[in-house]
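Team,

Forwarding the record for the chain on the shared tracking sheet. I've put the sequence and predicted structure together so nobody has to dig through attachments.
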Amino acid sequence: MTKAIAGLEIRSGAFLIDKYEEEMQNRTTIHLDKAIEIKDKILSEYSDLLEHPKKKHFIEILNGLNKDTINAINFRRPSWYATDRLSELSLLFKDLKEHITIVQKRDYLSITPKVEDIKVVYKWTEKFNVPHYYFQVFFDKSYGISFKNILSLVADPEKEGEYYEISKDIKNQNKTTIKINTRKTTQVAYKIIEPEHNSVRREMGRGRLLFYVTFEKGTAYLDIHSLKSLLNIEDF
């Protein structure tokens, strides 16, 4: 370890991030537009029903709903059935809530260190005095972030939501995971030529068959300046 300049943890992601970003942006735009449309309909056609003292707070919520605030909007969907118009209004609030929920869903791919690993990596960096980095490799681009920066992010609650979120990962035994927005990390590969892939059939003992995929070739075009800057090795 005396000669090491960095410790790297590299993970792969089975996504084309450009296509993912495009679809997520389209999804957000569609549901944002629908939410605004429903908001305007409620205010123009049902505002009289919301003048009741127990319903008036919904007017403030609706007036405050726009593309800049939608991620912070939260309300309990009302259930009103006393009249036909109240039932219609309840259904509109139901639809509005559904569109807002979709807009508020995480729309970015992430670098995902597990919370339980943070202490281990910290001890490793302290023991060997070697910086540690996380890299996420997609099928068209790659991103990286320093462990030091990860600690800085999670220590700042104001960045939660935009820069990262913390949640239990169902795909990883419900372990608590920090999901860091790749848009807030450093892009280190700007283009990747996908490898060739072939299926392989292998016969094991007792006639058992094993099938798997092999990869050959493939090229990643690195942004050397960004990579050296991230690793703090400008002088190398």
